[in-house]
Design brief:
This protein is mainly α and 141 residues long. It contains 5 helices and no strands. The protein has one domain.
């Protein structure tokens, strides 16, 4: 885990949580619940445990993106975006597609869920690539 931008990882987690809250909590809340067959009461009943599991998943994603950006040796905004786009397209989206191929989930969810993946991965990659602590400069006393 050498070279991971931990500040970027933490800020990427915060960004991912905010995007998820806005995406599923406001922008597509009613449409997503209808397509999933959930009521607002069922969602509220999920409560804190669902949010904790979601945050844990996003933390793992952020650490993975941080590792990938470090391994690719391009810790910049564009480097983070490229790494995140590759991870999203080649891993997250294809793995998530199995829900619809084999899991028989409602295909109406595809634009909502895949749109979210795309946006959150790019945002997290951008943050990890762009936000860094400034190195300390040694001073002579």
């Amino acid at each position: 885990m050498k070279g991971i931008n931990w500040l970027g990882v933490v800020l990427a987690l915060v960004a991912g949580q905010l995007i998820g809250f806005a995406w599923y909590g406001f922008a597509f809340s009613e449409q997503w619940m209808a397509l999933m067959g959930f009521t607002a009461e069922q969602i509220e009943g999920e409560g804190m445990m669902g949010m904790l599991y979601g945050a844990l998943g996003q933390l793992i994603t952020a650490i993975g993106l941080g590792w990938l950006v470090a391994r690719l040796g391009e810790p910049t905004l564009m480097g983070g975006l490229k790494a995140a786009l590759a991870a999203c397209v080649f891993f997250a989206a294809t793995t998530n597609a199995n829900r619809f191929i084999y899991g028989m989930e409602n295909p109406g969810l595809i634009p909502i869920d895949f749109g979210y993946l795309f946006i959150v991965y790019l945002a997290m990659g951008a943050v990890i690539g762009a936000v860094r602590l400034k190195p300390r400069v040694a001073t002579l006393a």
